[in-house]
Amino acid sequence: MFPDQKNQLRVGIDGPAAARACLVRMLETELGSHLQVAVLHAGEAPYTAQTPEESFRDAAVLFVEGEGVSGQRRAWDLDAVLQAGTFGPEGPADPLPDADLVLTCRPAGGAGPLEAWATYHVMVAVGSLPQLAPLKIAERIRLPHLDLQVRKIEAYPDAEDAFDVLFRSSARAVWLDSSNAETAPQPRNRFSILADDSGSLGMYVTHFSGMTTVSSAQLQVRVRSPFFNWLAGAWDKVLEPAPGAFPSQFALGWLGYLGYELKRETGGAVPLRAVSFARYRAPDAALIFASRAVVIDHAERCSYIMSLVPGGPGLDTGSWQAGAAAALHRLSRIRRGNRRIACSTDDAAPVGRTLQFRCLDDEQQYLGKILAAKSEITNGNSYEVCLTTQLVAEPEQPVEPWQVYRLLRRHNPAPFAAYLAFDSLRIASTSPERFLQIDSDGLMTAEPIKGTRPRHADPVIDRALREALASSEKDRAENIMIVDLMRNDLSRSAEPESVQVERLCAIESYATVHQMVSTISAKLRFGIRRAHAVAAAFPAGSMTGAPKPRTMAILDGLEAGTRGVYSGAIGYFSANGACDLSVVIRTLVIDQPADGEGTPRQCLSLGIGGAITADSVPAAEYEEIQDKARGVLKALGTVFPQRNPGNCRSESRALPSSELFSEVPGRSV
Predict the structure, then answer these.
(1) Helices and strands (DSSP H and E) totals, the chain
(2) What class does this enzyme belong to in the EC scheme (predicted)?
(3) Contacts of 557 (CB under 8 A, 6+ apart)
């Protein structure tokens, strides 16, 4: 479709004729001083596309003018080749595979001028393209004026009830849930954040194998560029800090997850083998832009309603704020009366009575991989290999994801718990581990976990287990190796001599396990983009081992398939430049096919693993992954798969109808 010319940016434009013309004018206006815009074809036919291929018949070709700019396309990786022209586990259809950027005007958006917010995100996408890097377009992007409104509410509702009432009905919503705040208060679990992508500024972003798609009510932007390049442009345009009286670092912005496979951009490779349940593959990354949210302060026992609106302080979101405030006051009164709201799933009829998991590696296979990892260490190729596997269930009848998460947060409360709903995908996390925090002033903090012991009902035995972990030379060695790796990762973006180890091998106790935790801090170096600081540390060293690039390659050869969401990060990238991300562990990923899709049934997956060192005892390492899975499996009413070689089926007990598949006790007024 495009002529073979050097130094060009290929842009496909789809939509009604008037909207296409509007987009071309916008590109000419925004890029006219850097690019020469030439329209290859712009038919005046109305928008009557019957198939994706037919809809992309109009395009503009932008010829790049600039010293040192190269128009050479980067080579497609394996996943991108699989993605082209298909719709399935590898990602969405790519009907215009030769385009670097595809702009789709949504009919609902009308044919009038693009709003400043939509124009801004087109320019963010253009600025993320590697071939335009010498033009430094991203540095010239003008951020639309946005007004951050924060309203304190003297109400302290149950966070679960608040999410249920205000956000759970949304197709895309995020709850960053400090679920252990009541039992173990500390600074890192002070706030719970509840949000969705509603509102005029709401957006949803996914990334599949090199293609980032940004969707809003008016426009869809698809750009073929590294995800962290796009994130740098979308996140780094920092707003004014939140009002001084607002104590949280979160000031609205992007929330969601970064999947482990983004390692292809940070020193890793694309694994050649596909996971056995690949038809359920989640995006490599998914984020919503939240222009409205509720923040619950567990320390001060109050709430905040936040809104981000365009056009200056004269505009507000009064109707939404008023409705949210009324709901929070009502839920707070219910909580003070020791009651709970009725949940729409409480009266659901049971859809099943058992849940069986299989594992990607049976016991003998996993023990063999431990020995292979030890061999790599003996041969000098690594000194710590964080080997993982996954438990997978495909229930005959689907479970209710919301019920699943409610059970998990009760059985296994954690400071970085989270519930994410992205269309058919649900993520229910009870992670205790912080990957990376960057505050608005640039202070970076990582808190890797290495070393685990199970909890015990007998206090004497439980204390002995905790003391055994604290004195374990093997666990301390594992933890210190990851601390050294994280110090190196942070130093790549830090001011010289600012890297500090604030805690080393401390013990923290959670509902089902004791963990060994360290804390590393550093100051972000001036001129380093925050997204690139995140990329420099991603994925978390506690999920790879060290040295990181070589060990990730070893893991690609050992593990049965891609990790997906597991081992990545969940959290927020705030509009004031702050971020707070957890490591995706103790996390159930539920792919729930939408009506009309051909997938036969729902899929649940739980990633588990542990660090293998030269001193590792295979049987003990296998026992450790069971300990890590126990909290999630127990909440679901099942156990770890049987240990008979070659048998990956789990023993399952009958699930109480009052739990996973219908009502949770205490959920009525």
Answers:
(1) 14, 30
(2) transferase
(3) none
pLDDT of residue 277: 46
Query: Are 61 and 38 within 8 A, CB to CB?
Result: yes
Rg (CA), the chain: 25
Residue 665's φ and ψ, nearest 5 degrees, are: -55, 140
Residues 6 or more apart in contact with residue 569 via CB below 8 angstroms: 257, 258, 435, 436, 538, 539, 540, 581, 582, 583, 584
Q: Which amino acid is at 149?
A: Q
| 159 Cβ contact partners less than 8 Å away, ≥ 6 residues apart | 175, 177, 178, 179, 192, 194, 296
State the DSSP code for 430: E
The total of other beta-carbon atoms located within 10 Å of residue 648's CB is 19
Residue 261 near residue 564 (C-beta atoms within 8 A):
yes
Residue 56 has pLDDT above 50, yes or no: no
List, in order, residues 6 or more apart from 39 with CB less than 8 Å away. Answer: 24, 60, 61
**DSSP characters over 565-615:** TTTSEEEEEETTS-EEEEE--SEEEEE-PPTT----S-EEEEEEEEEE-TT
Mean pLDDT along residues 546-565: 94
Measured on CA atoms in the order 522, 520, 264, 382, is the torsion positive or negative?
A: positive
* Pair of tokens at residue 3: 């002529």
Distance CA 365, CA 572 (A): 37
Strands 101-105 and 8-14, bridge-based pairing: parallel
Query: What are the residue ranges of helices labelled H in 216-258?
Result: 227-235
Output the CA–CA distances (angstroms, integers) from residue 267 to 63, 77, 128, 530, in the order listed.
Answer: 31, 14, 19, 18
Three-state helix/strand/coil letters over 327-394: HHHHHHHHHHCCCCCCCCCCCCCCCCCCCCCEECCCHHHHHHHHHHHHHHHHCCCCCEEEEEEEEEEC
pLDDT for 647 beyond 90: no
634, amino acid identity: K
Longest dimension (CA), the chain: 79
Distances (CA, A) of 342 to 174, 237, 411, 663: 21, 42, 20, 10
pTM: 0.86
pLDDT band at 215 (very low <50, low <70, confident <90, very high): very high
Three-state DSSP string of 186-227:
CHHHCEEEEEECCCCCCEEEEEECCEEEEECCCEEEEEECCH
In one-letter notation, the amino acid at residue 527 is: G
Q: What is the distance between the alpha carbons of residues 658 and 20, in angstroms, rounded to a whole number?
A: 54
| CA-based torsion, 560, 561, 563, 565: positive or negative | negative
Strands 384-393 and 358-359 come out as antiparallel
- State the DSSP string of 288-310: EEESEEEEEETTTTEEEEEEEEE
Task: Check: CB of residue 589 under 8 Å from CB of residue 427.
Answer: yes
**Residue 291 corresponds to which tokens in the numbers above?**
């222009």
